[in-house]
Design brief:
The chain is an alpha+beta fold. The protein folds into 3 domains: 394 residues, no CATH class; 90 residues; 134 residues, Jelly Rolls (Sandwich), CATH 2.60.120. 48% of the residues lie in helices and 14% in strands. The strands form 3 sheets. Strands 6, 8, 10, 13, 15 and 16 form a 6-stranded mixed beta sheet that branches. It is elongated, with a radius of gyration of 33 Å. The model has no long low-confidence stretch (mean pLDDT 88).
Length: 639
């Protein structure tokens, strides 16, 4: 994949992430009392703003089913209006914060963690593919489906979802917000939102290491890097654990608020920081990201046992190792993963704090240079762990799934007035193809047939403009008519039953939904050969497209390829309503079967069975089949 495509995707996602964080940060500053500002740091304002946005979305969706696209516009407009009203105070407050060296360092640190998360996954980029990651991506598309449904309709009623919307409402709201800056396409915003949450988790971990344990920026960022690239985070990145990242960041923030309050109260007796409001905001965000009523937070110990069966203990702390690939894990295991993600940064920070306070070097009387080198070992160890995890992921990590961007063309059919459809997909019935089709055709009910069902085995009686059928990896020419919509590289949407039409010839070296047969070879340039002494065939026609109530002819173009001196091939046939006959073929020629309205069976679409016995035991090549009003060749003699 071209490097420029990754660079463009990376730059776009990073810019949107910074803009989103800036809006939430500004909202938090404007919505909190002025007297708290002296005690608040960047995570406090950001979490407060994000929590307020999530609560507003929850109220709007739960009470009035207001589309989230309006909620986001009102939220952004309110932040802009409040900022305009309090612009003088806001400039005096923010100018020192955003113009100094700490702000520039924060931007560099966040960008570094975002890029690190991106490198670990390397999602599909460019205009030729959908922006998917490794793994089955079904969870990713399900989040995107909920976000699109909430954006456009304010409801959460989607069919064939692999998890419920209440699994993590906050994650869906955040994805919906992000999608506004990706052309209102939640699928396009899905991976950048995941990287944002991973980088934000690392930044909160670094902030906690600084304010709670008093560590330097280098050591704090080394801890953040270890957390972001560890096997546990790589697993969540690979299986699209958006809810886990948001929950872990919220829980880590709550621990940081409590830890800071304890640390500051020991240093200063007059500390009056807003611990309770900060803890409340973080807890509220945690509740909406991992709702207890959805099973989060219960049986964490049993979930930890399940997590340890997937990831070794040392790998949970960031040591290089393989990341699991399973995505269909219980909520108990996921709850344990959230707790581990929030606790591990504190454990690393505690180890670094203990190492910094180790006075053994004082007894060895080493030089100041050796002392500085020894104290930098934590940074070096962190860099070694980061490089080790990146190497393991590069060598053993799965590649991103490649699905053609032509899937987006299916969205053009979403404007049609049908409420239900049938899906014939090339993978499992509940797989990625089903999820993508349901994403680009929102608000529909679907009946799905997977790879175990061939297109010829489907029933087309109910196919119509009100209930079409989508057949993956199938060209619309095989429908026999033009009431279709072809999605290049993806499949065909049929809005009428497949049918033969008058005077059209259909070659056997193509696949047609109205023509089924058994005991024939794979297609070749000239057609197909029979493989057994008896061939069963069935043709389907729509009485609305062909005058089946009249006398017609089914014509077959065949070639026995007989050597010189060999007698003509005898074919005995049964078709329609107990019609029988025999014909002889000795060269490439047409023969015709007369059919009337009594020979067809069916209601909405009519079918005609044909059985051919090869009496001489030889094979012949079938070239074409056609439905006509007059015979194209020798009419089969009936008896």
């Amino acid at each position: 994949m071209p490097l420029w495509a990754h660079l463009l995707s990376l730059a776009h996602g990073l810019a949107v992430a910074l803009l989103s964080l800036a809006v939430f940060y500004l909202a938090g500053v404007l919505l909190t009392p002025r007297r708290w500002q002296a005690w608040m740091r960047w995570p406090d304002s950001l979490v407060a703003g994000l929590t307020f946005y999530v609560v507003v979305c929850w109220i709007a969706v739960s009470s009035r089913h207001i589309p989230v696209k309006y909620v986001t516009l009102i939220f952004a407009g309110s932040v802009w209006a409040l900022g305009s009203i309090r612009s003088r105070w806001l400039r005096s407050l923010l100018a020192p914060r955003v113009s100094g060296l700490p702000a520039r360092r924060w931007l560099v640190d966040f960008a570094a963690l975002y890029v690190l998360a991106y490198i670990l996954i390397r999602p599909a980029a460019g205009s030729a593919f959908l922006p998917l990651g490794p793994g089955d991506n079904i969870g990713l598309v399900t989040y995107a489906r909920y976000a699109r449904q909430l954006l456009d309709f304010g409801t959460t009623n989607i069919d064939l979802a692999v998890f419920d919307y209440l699994h993590s409402p906050a994650s869906v709201y955040l994805l919906a917000w992000q999608s506004l800056m990706f052309g209102r396409d939640p699928l396009q915003a899905a991976m950048p939102t995941l990287f944002l949450c991973a980088a934000l988790l690392g930044m909160i971990a670094a902030e906690a290491a600084r304010v709670v344990f008093g560590l330097s920026r280098r050591i704090s960022m080394a801890i953040a890097g270890i957390v972001v690239c560890g096997p546990l985070v790589r697993w969540m990145l690979g299986t699209y654990g958006l809810a886990e990242f948001v929950s872990a960041a919220a829980l880590l923030y709550v621990l940081r608020v409590v830890g800071r309050a304890v640390t500051e109260s020991k240093k200063r007796s007059d500390y009056a920081g807003p611990m309770f409001p900060g803890a409340m905001a973080g807890t509220a965000l945690l509740v909406f990201a991992a709702p207890p009523w959805a099973g989060w937070g219960s049986h964490v110990l049993s979930g930890l046992a399940g997590l340890l069966s997937l990831i070794p203990m040392l790998s949970l702390f960031g040591l290089p190792g393989n990341a699991p690939v399973a995505s269909d894990l219980s909520v108990y295991v996921r709850s344990a993963a959230v707790v581990v993600l929030a606790v591990v940064p504190f454990l690393w920070a505690g180890v670094a704090r203990a190492a910094r306070g180790w006075h053994m070097l004082d007894h060895l009387h080493v030089s100041d240079t050796d002392r500085r080198l020894a104290r930098a070992l934590v940074v070096y160890a962190g860099l070694a762990l980061i490089l080790g995890n990146v190497t393991v992921q590069a060598v053993r990590g799965p590649e991103a799934v490649r699905r053609p961007a032509a899937w987006r063309q299916l969205h053009e059919a979403s404007g049609l007035s049908f409420r239900a459809l049938t899906l014939k997909v090339a993978d499992e019935a509940n797989g990625l193809s089903t999820a993508l089709a349901m994403y680009y055709l929102p608000g529909r009910k679907a009946q799905v047939f997977g790879r175990g069902v061939s297109p010829q085995d489907l029933s087309f009686d109910s196919v119509s403009k009100e209930q079409p059928i989508f057949v993956q990896n199938f060209r619309c020419e095989g429908a026999g008519h033009r009431d279709t919509m072809f999605v290049r590289e993806v499949g065909c949407l049929l809005m009428a039953p497949p049918s033969m039409t008058l005077d059209a010839s259909y070659p056997f070296n193509q696949t047609f939904l109205f023509l089924t047969y058994d005991r024939m070879t794979a297609r070749e340039q000239g057609g197909r050969w029979n493989t057994r002494p008896t061939l069963h065939m069935r043709v389907t026609a729509d009485p609305q497209r062909a005058p089946l109530e009249r006398e017609l002819f089914i014509n077959l173009l065949v070639n026995p390829f007989l050597p010189e001196g060999v007698k003509p091939q005898r074919l005995a046939m049964k078709w329609g309503s107990e019609r029988t006959g025999v014909t002889l073929v000795d060269e490439r020629e047409w023969f015709s079967l007369p059919v009337g309205s009594g020979d067809w069976k069916g209601n909405r679409v009519w079918t005609l069975p044909i059985t051919i016995d090869f009496l001489d035991g030889r094979t012949i090549l079938f070239h074409e089949i056609a439905l006509t009003e007059s015979p194209r060749g020798t009419v089969v003699s009936q008896y």
